[in-house]
Design brief:
single chain; two-stranded antiparallel ribbon; about 5% strand
Length: about 350
């Protein structure tokens, strides 16, 4: 069948596959920590995206070629290590420097638009309808977050089902370039919760506190991991089918999701300490409860920025856009270089 045929057919040595997989995995792990950067885009940049998709397709249909196992193993291991080591750092930056990080996230998100637009090619009516639907869906998610009293904290306790859904959403970001898993975590209100859980698990294991590690693992990490596994198996095959059958509308939805993502990343908001009597996460605040709140649990409020802050935010948006665009261009140049090298080899 045409939609299941391998996308890559050259005989690259296994050590070279492993090295490329590690590079792509590290980039994808960092991308999943940072809202705005797509893990799929990072794999494109590393030149292993097509191999990753092929490997998933083969493994999920119980075909276990060594090349596919090496590709998947190196990417997953490297991505997991990057996530574990850097989750706490990224979480603290988001909490302590929200306006700067959100501005950067906006630029990183918009930088994925040219990637998807190149995939679209000629825009059709289906593309525009899909884009409108994707934009409305993402904008609605952002609006729901602002109407939820706990949404500003981006770090409240999340239930098993929500974390499972977040895992599935994160998996989708590994499949298609342009979708940011970190951003989906952000709009679902579980971004800091997940990063905190990963960092707490790392600290507990380092301290050999298996009781604490087990508690965090079951409460936070386990449902996310299950969601990712389910998402990779199900979403990857569904998206491959959609792209094969309804390529233009599907890419249009992806484009709309990217542009709509910016709606939920307004940078000028800061943590505020609640007052006695305020209702936070369904609890009426008392002096004791307020004293026990951690920085990640504080609600946020919008504020009016000064001109200097606006200019700085715009600068960071430009930086983020350029970073994503350059990484995507790197992947595009690698894809162009390979056929050119083949032509030159034939000519000689």
């Amino acid at each position: 069948m045409p939609d299941t045929a391998p996308l890559t057919t050259d005989d690259t040595p296994l050590p070279a596959l492993a090295v490329r997989g590690v590079v792509g995995g590290v980039l994808m792990g960092l991308a999943n920590l940072v809202p705005g950067i797509s893990g799929g885009t990072m794999l494109v940049a590393a030149g292993v995206y097509q191999r990753f998709i092929d490997a998933i397709a083969e493994v999920t249909t119980l075909r276990f070629r060594m090349a596919s196992m090496v590709t998947l193993g190196s990417i997953v291991a490297a991505a997991g290590l990057a996530i574990v080591l850097l989750a706490g750092v990224v979480r603290n930056l988001v909490i302590d420097h929200r306006w700067a990080m959100y501005s950067l996230f906006i630029g990183l998100t918009l930088g994925g638009v040219p990637v998807v637009w190149r995939m679209v090619g000629r825009a059709t009516r289906g593309v525009w309808v899909g884009a409108a639907a994707g934009f409305v869906a993402m904008a609605a998610l952002a609006w729901l977050q602002t109407t939820d009293q706990a949404s500003g904290s981006d770090g409240g306790d999340a239930g098993f089902v929500m974390l499972l859904v977040a895992g599935v959403a994160g998996a989708s970001a590994m499949i298609l370039p342009g979708v940011s898993g970190g951003y989906l975590f952000l709009v679902l209100g579980v971004y800091v919760t997940i990063l905190t859980g990963i960092d707490d698990l790392k600290q507990a294991v380092s301290a050999r506190d298996m009781s604490a590690a087990g508690e965090v693992g079951v409460a936070v990490v386990l449902p996310v991991v299950i969601g990712v596994i389910v998402g990779v198996v199900v979403v990857s095959n569904v998206l491959r089918w959609l792209l094969h059958r309804y390529e233009k509308p599907t890419l249009g939805v992806l484009l709309g999701l990217l542009v709509g993502a910016v709606v939920g990343l307004w940078p000028f908001q800061r943590s505020v300490t609640p007052q006695v009597g305020d209702v936070i996460k369904g609890q009426v605040m008392t002096a004791e409860l307020i004293a026990d709140l951690k920085p990640k649990d504080l609600p946020t409020a919008f504020y009016q920025p000064g001109i200097g802050l606006v200019v700085s935010a715009l600068g960071l948006i430009v930086v983020g856009f350029v970073v994503t665009a350059l990484i995507a261009r790197l992947g595009q140049e690698k894809k162009r270089a390979k056929p050119q090298a083949a032509v030159e080899g034939t000519a000689t």
